[in-house]
Every structure is written in structure tokens, then in C-alpha cells.
Amino acid sequence: MRNILLATAALTVIAAPAMAQSIPNPQWQGSIGYTQLDGSDGDLGAITGRVGAKFNRYIGAEGEASFGVRDDDFTVAGVEGKLKHEYDAAIYGVGTLPINDNFELFGRVGYGTTKIKAEIPGVTATNDGESINYGAGANYFFDGQNGVRGDWTRRDFRDDGGEVDTYGVSYIRRF
Q1: Alpha-carbon distance 52 to 92, whole Å?
Q2: C-alpha distances out from residue 141 to 34, 72, 155, 170, 171, Å
Q3: Quick one: pLDDT at residue 13?
């Protein structure tokens, strides 16, 4: 039994460099699109950019950043105000399930930060929130490089900051 274990360990040591050499360079991709933020305090819109790397067919990572382009109006005690999305940024681990060469499903889990500003005449308040984010989506590629992406992500804000669902549609490109 000891000889079998030693032989297995020796084969593992010999095979490890070969396995390391077979891991290709990451496949990079980027996307730009529109994200709708749907929360209990208001509905906002943002332009979102992402950069990601797939380490193999199934595992990757991506970072994203957004800035607000659509504000929401509100009224408090007869006074009109405006809710604005200043920015957000997040980083995710991504798991991908390739269906075929052109279509893939993905799930992602990550951590982010968001800044929202509320304005009423004479008063401005900002709020920063840190969140655990999780979601799912799909990529469809028209050719080997260009495609569209649709995704849903829930931002679960820490310290009882509530939840926000985001829905996005993006142009995606593989590099």
C-alpha cells in the first residue's frame, strides 16, 4: 500500500508541471451597457462597463463600474426632490456554463460599493453602501468576438441597507 501511495505521489509531482503548462492565458472580455437599478427608494439608470477574464471554460472573474444617467423624482411633504445614482463599483467571481460556441449561462457572486445622492431644495444628502452581490445571466455571441449580455444582480446592502435588484443589457466583446 505504501508503494502505491509513493508511486501516486511521484506521478503527481511529475504531472504537475505538465498541467500548469496546459493552462492557457486567460480569455479577456469587456462589455458596456445600460443597467436599471430597482430599489424600494427609487428606480435609477446607469451606464455600466465591465472587464473580465475567463481562466478556463467554467471559472472567471470580472470587475464593473457604473455611473448614473437616469435620476428618479420624489416628493416629501409636498417638496419635490431628486434621487441620483453617483457611482458603483464591484468585483465578482464568475461561474460559466457553456451551452454551445455562441451561448453561455453564468452566475456571479461578489462585493460592491454604491453611492446615492438625494437632493431637495437647500438640502443634499449622500449615502454610501457596501453590498454582497449575486446574480445570473446569459451571453450570446453573434460571432467569435461580438455579442449581447443580459443579467440580473441583487445587491444585498450591509447594515440593514436594504436590497436593490439590477437588470442589465450590454454589448460584449471578447479580446
Answers
A1: 9
A2: 18, 33, 27, 12, 10
A3: 45
